[in-house]
Amino acid sequence: MSENRIKLAPETVAYADAKTRKLVVEFAIPGAPTDTIEVKILGDSIHLTAPARDIEYVSALALAWPVKPDKAEAIYEHGLLRIEVPFKDPMEDAVKVTIKTASVETKPAAIATQGAPPAVGRGSSKPLAAEPALAP
Known about the structure:
Layout: E1 6-8, E2 11-17, E3 22-28, E4 38-42, E5 45-52, E6 55-62, E7 73-77, E8 80-86
């Protein structure tokens, strides 16, 4: 009879619980025996198969935020499967980078001013007041 089962997506509700910092997913799968329900969770998705009489409930959810699959908990009661899984901190696997200081000293460059022409004001051929006039 398993070959003749109709595949059906269960009614599903998924939301983030701000207080517990967990993703909560609820699947309505009435009539599915607990021992036949199969849930697989990856860091970015949840997959469900649950045969019930002549129906096989199937679902795959892509998650927008990574979760910790090894910390998931599931409860099945009155045809409702409730899964809670904590969100993963995005910096959890971050690696701290050691910052080194450069050992080369930098000194300001000397600017030669001897023999340089004076700065000229806008459109004027006269030197600026702070610059000495060049001898002809």
